[in-house]
Amino acid sequence: MQGYSAMVEELDRQRAELTRIRAALSDLTSRATSHDRLVAVTVNARGLAVDISIEPAALRRYRAEQLSELLTTLVAEADRALDARRAELLAAAEVSEPDYRDVR
User: Is the pTM above the cut of 0.85?
Assistant: First the structure.
């Protein structure tokens, strides 16, 4: 029965760890800023733009199609950074693989 108790405790620990990871992943955001700092985009955990900041000088510096391309590029950059952070969180997770000898 001691083996069973240890297995249940381990499952509880893993469930708590997964809950913590899920919360951390859902709270992630990432921000990318143009080289001239005139345009910035923040994306949420799903990769959706949740904030776009455009300084008035950007409207004078960029034509509409340039600004559109820059925004698309910044969203992609922020999303890539988010992917990297997501991978770091998952790599640091303390969830062990099941040992199938314990499942008998």
Answer: no
E-assigned strands of the chain? 30-33, 39-43, 49-54
pLDDT at 75 over 90: yes
Task: Identify whether the C-beta of residue 83 lies closer than 8 Å to the C-beta of residue 29.
Answer: no
Contact 74, 40 (CB under 8 A): yes
Which CATH number, 3.55.50.30, 3.30.1310.10, 3.90.76.10, 3.40.50.300, labels domain 2-95? 3.30.1310.10
Give the C-alpha separation, 43 to 79, whole Å: 7
